């Protein structure tokens, strides 16, 4: 026989309602007893019938269980109130921190304007001297950093020069071209380079310029006065 599903609504028939109440009440008391024994739990159950009759079960003492429940609820309410108080304290702390940071930002903005040469009307002589010293230190730091950057760039260019010279030498060796050395320093006196320093006139000089690789060079003659 298939057992039908009971609809969860009030039973209109008084006799059926009383029978169902007695059956479910006994089942509920039995479950409370089993829960207390099997799980070593403190269980207290209170039931009032529709007519006002009391049915109860307590694994230890109904009064002690009720007092324990009241103490627990009181502690919960106290902790809840304490949590709200902690939240308020944290909010006030964060508010004070925000105000302090806002004041610091305002001071920094004023100092920045003064360093830019603005808002100096209210500065005293001592404050102006301090600003001047601070700016001088800043300029010295900037110049030192600039010199360092220049030196680093010079070193990089020297390294690049060495690489290009090595590459040039390799290409000359590959094509059989004689590598010409460039003198590092030249004399400031132009007469030292002349074959005859006593001559007042510079004779024509014939210069040969070769273009292209050795086997196909084109010779050009240039006359200079």
UniProtKB/TrEMBL annotation:
One Pfam family matching this protein: SRF-TF
GO molecular function: DNA-binding transcription factor activity; protein dimerization activity; RNA polymerase II transcription regulatory region sequence-specific DNA binding
UniProt keyword list: Coiled coil, DNA-binding, Nucleus, Transcription, Transcription regulation
Database matches in InterPro entries: MADS-box/MEF2_TF (IPR050142), MEF2-like_N (IPR033896), TF_Kbox (IPR002487), TF_MADSbox (IPR002100), TF_MADSbox_sf (IPR036879)
PROSITE patterns per the UniProt record, alphabetical: K_BOX (PS51297), MADS_BOX_1 (PS00350), MADS_BOX_2 (PS50066)
Compartmental location: Nucleus
Primary subcellular site in the record, as a coarse category: nucleus
GO biological process: flower development; plant organ development; positive regulation of transcription by RNA polymerase II
Region feature Disordered, mapped onto this chain: 183-209
Coiled coil: 59-148
GO cellular component, one term: nucleus
Domain MADS-box intervals: 1-61
CDD domains: MADS_MEF2_like
SMART domains, per the entry: MADS
Residues covered by the K-box domain: 91-185
Domain of life: Eukaryota
PANTHER family per UniProt: SERUM RESPONSE FACTOR HOMOLOG
Protein name as catalogued: suppressor of OVEREXPRESSION of CONSTANS 1
Gene: SOC1
């Amino acid at each position: 026989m298939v057992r039908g599903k009971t609809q969860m609504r009030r039973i209109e028939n008084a006799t059926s309602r009383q029978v169902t109440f007695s059956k479910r009440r006994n089942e509920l008391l039995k479950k409370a007893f089993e829960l207390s024994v099997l799980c070593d739990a403190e269980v207290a159950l209170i039931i009032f019938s529709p007519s006002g009759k009391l049915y109860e079960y307590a694994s230890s003492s109904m009064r002690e269980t009720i007092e324990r429940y009241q103490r627990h609820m009181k502690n919960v309410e106290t902790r809840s109130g304490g949590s709200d108080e902690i939240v308020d304290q944290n909010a006030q702390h964060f508010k004070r921190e925000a105000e302090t940071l806002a004041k610091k930002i305002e001071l920094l903005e004023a100092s920045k304007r003064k360093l830019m040469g603005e808002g100096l009307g209210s500065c005293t002589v001592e404050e102006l001297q301090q600003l001047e010293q601070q700016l001088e230190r800043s300029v010295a730091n900037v110049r030192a950093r600039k010199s360092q950057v220049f030196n680093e760039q010079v070193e990089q260019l020297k390294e690049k020069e060495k690489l290009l010279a090595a590459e040039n030498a390799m290409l000359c060796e590959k094509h059989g071209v004689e590598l010409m050395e460039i003198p590092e320093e030249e004399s400031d006196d132009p007469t030292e380079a002349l074959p005859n320093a006593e001559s007042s006139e510079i004779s024509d000089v014939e210069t040969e310029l070769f273009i292209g690789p050795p086997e196909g060079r084109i010779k050009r003659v240039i006359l200079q006065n």
